[in-house]
Design goal:
The chain has four helices and no strands. The longest helix has 19 residues. Helix 1 runs antiparallel to helix 4. By secondary structure, it is mainly α.
């Protein structure tokens, strides 16, 4: 798959996922969150990262840093789904 295509699909999947959990109490700037996730995950991963336990933890840590710490979204289901998309598309 073309890297540009993969990046676009990853961002679209994450945007859709975040749109599902958005509500009136927690207005979310989805594009900004997706871009932050994308940036942090790209720094933490390399081709074949899914096959190394240490790198899996680094990617999860990068995702957690954005979702839990920066944006204060405490939703384990969202985190798990986002990580699943990252495994699939990155």
């Amino acid at each position: 798959m073309d890297p540009v295509d993969a990046q676009a699909k990853a961002k679209a999947a994450l945007s859709e996922l975040l749109s599902e959990v958005k509500n009136g109490k927690t207005p979310i700037a989805i594009e900004r969150i997706v871009n932050d996730i994308d940036k942090n995950v790209r720094l933490a991963r390399f081709p074949g990262w899914q096959n190394t336990r240490a790198r899996e933890r680094e990617v999860q840590k990068a995702l957690r840093k954005v979702v839990y710490v920066k944006y204060k979204i405490k939703n384990q289901d969202l985190f798990d789904k986002a990580y699943g998309y990252i495994v699939q598309y990155y």
